[in-house]
Amino acid sequence: MNDDDSNTIDVGSRIATVLKSKGLNVSWLAKQMHYERANIYNIFHRKSIDTELLRKISVILENNFFDEISRIIEKQIKEQ
């Protein structure tokens, strides 16, 4: 299986990108999640994330990160 960048998702980085693209900030997300801002920055630095936490973030940001991950998996399956 090919592990180049087109076949991976840096989940934390992707969350940060989506947050910014929606014109939202870390303080807003922290408030929505009842987290400290430092915890949000910690999430941004993660390459992987607990599925329940990702579900919660997906709902809050109205962005299906699971769909993005699924598309990468589908691509990897086809490349085998």
Query: Low-confidence spans: pLDDT under 50, at least 5 residues?
Result: none
What does the largest sheet look like?
none
Q: Kindly, what is the distance between the CA atoms of the first and last residues, rounded to a whole number of angstroms?
A: 6 Å
Tell how many strands the DSSP assignment holds: 0
Model description:
The chain is mainly α. Helix 2 (26-33) crosses helix 3 (37-44). The protein has a single domain (5-79), classed as lambda repressor-like DNA-binding domains (434 Repressor (Amino-terminal Domain), Orthogonal Bundle). It has helices at residues 11-21, 26-33, 37-44, 51-61, 65-79.
List keywords for this structure.
80 residues; mainly alpha; 434 Repressor (Amino-terminal Domain); 5 helices
